[in-house]
């Protein structure tokens, strides 16, 4: 197969068919690393195909070559598949400054090394005075060059460029070295004209001598230049300056501050309450954050939120939400620091598997769970907590957890769910248990007598009859009571009680036949051959693999795949919150695709109300099976 193309965050399933006798051992690997089912990957293996599924969506790091290997004692075969993940572009390269004048200069740069799988639509140019911390947006350009104007003379600047495609913005390019604009002596302006040192300077006391008064009226935003008499700043007026005879009250700027400690990789949502605010922005260490996949803006009433998808140490520092209101600029400040402890949310390394057992057997459901700190484990049956008793025990060995059911009975059948939870999150997995009852019937004997001169008696004894939901078997022996040494034994598999009754009727009919010796035995064999062909054969349905709980962003395409077995092919039905799903539901957004041993539920343009429990039901005349997966929809 060719390369698999996917968007960042998309749920991907790579399906590879295989064959071989005996059944081969299947392994997946990327590079030198073997892949097993965990929180990021799900490996599905059935009798005819294997799939590598990314249930939580792919990321840029997932791009590359994957090798699937099939091996048994007769040989080995392997196949390589390339996965290409579309993402935001790399940062622009080689930023250079030329043609520097007093108030302008030219910038040129090279396109990103990779465009993330989508054409770069524009570039954002930012500048910063070397004496300031905050980067200021200058303009956007479609080409890899731009002329920056309206600069101040004899001022030191740095510049950087950000690339953008339809998936979002790249990281900024490496900033330029500090550049000092020229002083144009032919144009004498108030802020950069030459000073006549022989001229007498008249000093007058400033109208606002108090530093507090100055900062009450202005916010110092950027240093623009230095001169003989001090430093020139760009200033933003916090409130209007009015003459003393105008008596009007002015509101002060409101500032709130919150200290927070977060962990590496943690999903974080900050909330700032600013009623009636406009022009709201979030600023990290003096740099404005752009609304993107990594930093998601949100509004709920008067609450303005910022969701950081995966916090890292670059987010450490002062994060401020600024909103302009009629009363002034409102600031809500968050002081973010990172915990030194290494921690992560629980994730399944291996999940418990569904089982079919006979009544009286012992059952062991096991799973392996990672997480730091070690998660708390709870077991549920049919969504009800399990009570520990002499019949049911829970065990733990390092990070392997097990539920043991001794001498299982039919009442133990159901859905068993294990939930793992710690401070940083939780996960769950479900497996089904079917306990099959044993039904025994006493031995039955049928005596056949022939008419005519020859007195011949044959006795047929039903050796034993053991019937279960998954296997029925009967064994019959035919022998001559007159001392004949010939004995014929016939074995019938998967024979129903109705078929057994038909066999007895056939034997009785044969007792009235006048045919002797081999002719009688021949008719018996022909009759039993027909019954073997009409006997019932089958395998109850079984769910081989179903994904763990899935979280996905609103607006994405959701794919839930499940492998199954059963003979004859079971009827497949999907339910959402107890309601049967059909392709006509929700304006055709729901689609169900089912092949011989795989069923897939596809939901286009996922919406918030699509979240909840989804159940897969399988059924044929030999039994049924079902499993449930929880879908969580993240708001954008």
From TrEMBL:
<dbReference type="InterPro" id="IPR036179">
    <property type="entry name" value="Ig-like_dom_sf"/>
</dbReference>
<feature type="domain" description="Ig-like">
    <location>
        <begin position="541"/>
        <end position="632"/>
    </location>
</feature>
<feature type="domain" description="Ig-like">
    <location>
        <begin position="346"/>
        <end position="434"/>
    </location>
</feature>
<dbReference type="Pfam" id="PF07679">
    <property type="entry name" value="I-set"/>
</dbReference>
<feature type="domain" description="Fibronectin type-III">
    <location>
        <begin position="91"/>
        <end position="184"/>
    </location>
</feature>
<dbReference type="GO" id="GO:0005737">
    <property type="term" value="C:cytoplasm"/>
</dbReference>
<keyword id="KW-0677">Repeat</keyword>
<protein>
    <recommendedName>
        <fullName>Titin</fullName>
    </recommendedName>
</protein>
<dbReference type="InterPro" id="IPR036116">
    <property type="entry name" value="FN3_sf"/>
</dbReference>
<dbReference type="InterPro" id="IPR013783">
    <property type="entry name" value="Ig-like_fold"/>
</dbReference>
<keyword id="KW-0963">Cytoplasm</keyword>
<dbReference type="Pfam" id="PF00041">
    <property type="entry name" value="fn3"/>
</dbReference>
<dbReference type="InterPro" id="IPR003961">
    <property type="entry name" value="FN3_dom"/>
</dbReference>
<dbReference type="InterPro" id="IPR003599">
    <property type="entry name" value="Ig_sub"/>
</dbReference>
<dbReference type="InterPro" id="IPR013098">
    <property type="entry name" value="Ig_I-set"/>
</dbReference>
<dbReference type="InterPro" id="IPR007110">
    <property type="entry name" value="Ig-like_dom"/>
</dbReference>
<keyword id="KW-0393">Immunoglobulin domain</keyword>
<feature type="domain" description="Ig-like">
    <location>
        <begin position="251"/>
        <end position="337"/>
    </location>
</feature>
<dbReference type="InterPro" id="IPR003598">
    <property type="entry name" value="Ig_sub2"/>
</dbReference>
């Amino acid at each position: 197969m060719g390369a698999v193309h996917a968007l960042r965050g998309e749920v991907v399933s790579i399906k590879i068919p295989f064959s071989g006798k005996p059944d081969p051992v299947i392994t997946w690997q990327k590079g030198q690393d073997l892949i097993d089912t965990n929180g990021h990957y799900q490996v599905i293996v059935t009798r005819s195909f294997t799939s590598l599924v990314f249930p939580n969506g792919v990321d840029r790091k997932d791009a590359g070559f994957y090798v699937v290997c099939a091996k048994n004692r007769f040989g080995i075969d392997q196949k390589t598949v390339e996965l290409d993940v579309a993402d935001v572009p790399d940062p622009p390269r080689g930023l250079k400054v030329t043609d520097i004048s007093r108030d302008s200069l030219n910038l040129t740069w090279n396109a990103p090394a990779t465009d993330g799988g989508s054409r770069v639509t524009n570039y954002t140019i930012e500048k910063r005075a070397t004496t300031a911390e905050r980067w200021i947006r200058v303009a956007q350009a479609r080409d890899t060059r731009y002329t920056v104007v309206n600069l101040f003379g004899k001022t030191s600047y740095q510049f950087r460029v950000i690339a953008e495609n339809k998936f979002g913005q790249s990281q900024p390019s490496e900033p330029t070295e500090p550049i000092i604009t020229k002083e144009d002596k032919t144009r004498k302006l108030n802020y950069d004209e030459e000073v006549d040192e022989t001229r007498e300077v008249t000093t007058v006391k400033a109208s606002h001598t108090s530093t507090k008064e100055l900062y009450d009226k202005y916010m110092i935003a950027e240093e623009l230049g230095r001169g003989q008499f001090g430093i020139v700043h760009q200033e933003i007026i916090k409130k209007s300056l009015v003459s003393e005879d105008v008596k009007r009250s002015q509101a002060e700027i409101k500032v709130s501050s919150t200290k927070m400690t977060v962990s590496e990789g943690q999903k974080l949502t900050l909330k700032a309450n600013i009623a009636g605010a406009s022009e709201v922005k979030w600023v990290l260490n003096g740099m404005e954050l752009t609304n993107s996949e990594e930093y998601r803006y949100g509004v709920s009433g008067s609450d303005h939120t910022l969701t950081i998808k995966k916090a890292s140490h670059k987010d450490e520092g002062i994060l401020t939400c600024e909103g302009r209101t009629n009363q002034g600029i409102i600031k809500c400040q968050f002081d973010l620091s990172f915990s030194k402890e290494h921690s992560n949310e629980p994730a399944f390394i291996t999940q418990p598997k569904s089982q079919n057992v006979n009544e009286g057997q012992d059952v062991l459901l096991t799973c392996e769970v990672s997480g730091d700190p070690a998660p708390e484990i709870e077991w549920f049956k049919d969504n009800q907590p399990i009570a520990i008793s002499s019949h049911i025990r829970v065990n733990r060995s390092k990070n392997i957890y097990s539920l043991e059911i001794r001498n299982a009975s039919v009442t133990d059948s159901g859905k068993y769910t294990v939930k793992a939870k710690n401070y940083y999150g939780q996960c769950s997995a479900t497996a089904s248990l079917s306990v099959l009852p044993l039904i025994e019937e006493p031995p039955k004997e049928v005596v056949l007598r022939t008419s005519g001169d020859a007195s011949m008696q044959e006795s047929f004894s039903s050796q034993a009859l053991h019937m279960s939901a998954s296997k029925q078997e009967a064994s019959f022996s035919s022998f001559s009571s007159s001392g004949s040494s010939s004995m014929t034994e016939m074995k019938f598999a998967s024979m129903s009680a109705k078929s057994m009754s038909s066999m007895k009727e056939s034997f009785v009919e044969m007792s009235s036949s006048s045919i002797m010796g081999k002719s009688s035995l021949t008719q018996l064999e022909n009759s039993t051959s027909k019954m073997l062909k009409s006997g019932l054969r089958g395998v109850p349905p079984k769910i081989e693999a179903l994904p763990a709980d899935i979280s996905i962003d609103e607006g994405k395409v959701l794919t839930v795949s499940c492998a199954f077995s059963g003979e004859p092919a079971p009827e497949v039905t999907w339910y959402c919150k107890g309601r049967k799903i059909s392709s006509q539901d929700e304006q055709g957004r729901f689609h169900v695709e089912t092949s011989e041993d795989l069923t897939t539920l596809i939901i286009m343009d996922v919406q918030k109300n699509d979240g909840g429990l989804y159940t897969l039901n399988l059924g044929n005349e030999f039994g049924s099976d079902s499993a449930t997966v929880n879908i969580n929809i993240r708001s954008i």
